[in-house]
Amino acid sequence: SSTIIxxxxxxxxxxxxxxxxxxxxxxxxGHITEAAFYKMLERMYSxxxxxxxxxxxxxxxxxxxxxxxxxxDSQIVEAFTKKETGMxxxxxxxxxxxxxxxxxxxxxxLSSALNGASKTIRNVAVKQISLEFSEEVKNMVSxxxxxxNFYEIQDMDYVAFIDFSKKLAADYKNEVFEIVISxxxxxxxxxxxxxxxxxxxxxxxxxxxxxxxxxxxxxxxxEEIYEIARVS
Length: 232
Description:
A hairpin with a 2-residue loop joins strand 2 and strand 3. This protein has helices at 2-9, 20-28, 34-46, 73-81, 90-96, 135-148, 158-171, 174-183, 188-200, 222-231; strands at residues 18-19, 51-54, 57-59, 62-64, 67-69, 86-89, 107-111, 118-121, 124-128. Helix 6 (135-148) crosses helix 7, helix 6 crosses helix 8 (174-183) and helix 7 packs antiparallel against helix 10 (222-231). The chain is 46% helix and 14% strand. The radius of gyration is 22 Å and the shape is elongated. It is α+β, with helices and mostly antiparallel strands. Strands 6-7-9-8 form a four-stranded mixed β-sheet. Strands 1-3-2 form a three-stranded antiparallel β-sheet. A two-stranded antiparallel sheet has the order 4-5.
């Protein structure tokens, strides 16, 4: 059984994350028992053949003449975002959208590749969301993330936010919103903020069905944002 496991591990590059449950399910369940598989992985971890990034996540350590090369944040991000399994959110995303110049030491990732609700590996905090992250889904999620955290984003560039809002409205599709909202828990005020933007740019939508006509939701009006952008 150790030979079968080693043969499968040979397909991985050094420092590439190995999701144990996925490896067992897809390649080994017909050959060995799950208990024997995990026992072998733990033995290889104890001997230094494997490194452990988190519970159930291993890697083949990369060794240079100076010793073991630690996992990089970018390698961890790649493992949780490849093949439409996830996306980067938080300040890394706000920064790439030019909404702020602020950065954060922690890289936040949403991913369907994670077993369990959340995990932090080095500087990468991963949260599980069972979505297929197509470009359209990523754009919708990034829109909702920005609107939900609007008041928390430090040093917001309001001119860039207006450009972002225009693109969000231009790309908006009801069916994509419904897919995202069925798997996530964005606040009603966030959905109302999105409705405000769509109304402002005269984009038809069906967001009313997610909101109460009797409630007033806390978020800025587009006119206010244009005014702030003008004076800044």
